[in-house]
Write a structure and sequence with these properties.
It is built from one helix and 15 strands, in the order H-E-E-E-E-E-E-E-E-E-E-E-E-E-E-E. A hairpin with a 2-residue loop joins strand 3 and strand 4. It has 203 residues and is mainly beta. It has one domain: Porin, CATH 2.40.160.
């Protein structure tokens, strides 16, 4: 209903004729501990999507519209591995590869999904009440419309978490540490380097 009738603060044109998207999804995977202290998850996936719903830019002036763009096939794989290096350090990484194909209309690009995504993290806990977390994310380029391609990017993040008592944690850190100029949607740049601080209480 939202895709049919929402004007999204005046930036979209409603489309009452929008048809329901239907998908058949297939996946085969593995989850286990192939080495001491490690965890591994892997999966192959495939989807057939009929009447794929996607935003089409500049339908009327600068306004977009949600439309059915036809039959789409999505396939790929993902791998997630984590391991403990020692008593005070854990590392992990995850990689996803996605191949999209518009079967009905090959000239219509599929938007908002990067072909490759890689994340990596390191968790250091030098003391029982202190954690240091480093997190990196890389996205390959993605299409925002049939004519606009957004560049790939890599962001770095850092967080320190201190627990003075069991129920309370005090956090401070930086997001987008490298101050990367990137966007997930055309015309909407993401935030640059940001500091943050949190106090959490669990009961």
């Amino acid at each position: 209903m939202k895709d049919r009738y929402s004007q999204r603060l005046g930036t979209y044109i409603e489309n009452p004729a929008l048809r329901q998207e239907r998908a058949r999804n297939y996946e085969i995977g593995y989850q286990g501990q192939p080495w001491q202290g490690g965890q591994l998850q892997a999966a192959l996936f495939y989807s057939d999507v009929d009447d794929k719903i996607q935003a089409v830019a500049n339908v009327s002036g600068n306004k977009s519209q949600m439309r059915n763009i036809g039959k789409v096939r999505s396939s790929g794989f993902e791998v997630d591995a984590r391991t403990a290096l020692n008593k005070w350090a854990d590392i992990g990484a995850a990689y996803t590869y996605t191949e999209l194909k518009n079967v009905s209309s090959p000239s219509t690009r599929l938007t908002d999904v990067p072909k490759q995504k890689l994340t990596a993290q390191a968790l250091l806990h030098p003391r029982g009440d202190l954690d240091v977390i480093a997190y990196a994310e890389h996205n390959s380029s993605r299409w925002a419309s049939n004519t606009v391609e957004l560049a790939g990017f890599t962001t770095l993040n850092l967080k320190l978490a201190y627990r003075p008592v069991k129920q309370v944690s005090v956090e401070a850190g930086l997001t987008n540490l490298n101050d990367k100029n990137y966007a997930l949607a055309d015309g909407f740049p993401s935030a640059g380097r940001q500091w943050f601080g949190n106090i959490n209480y669990r009961y």
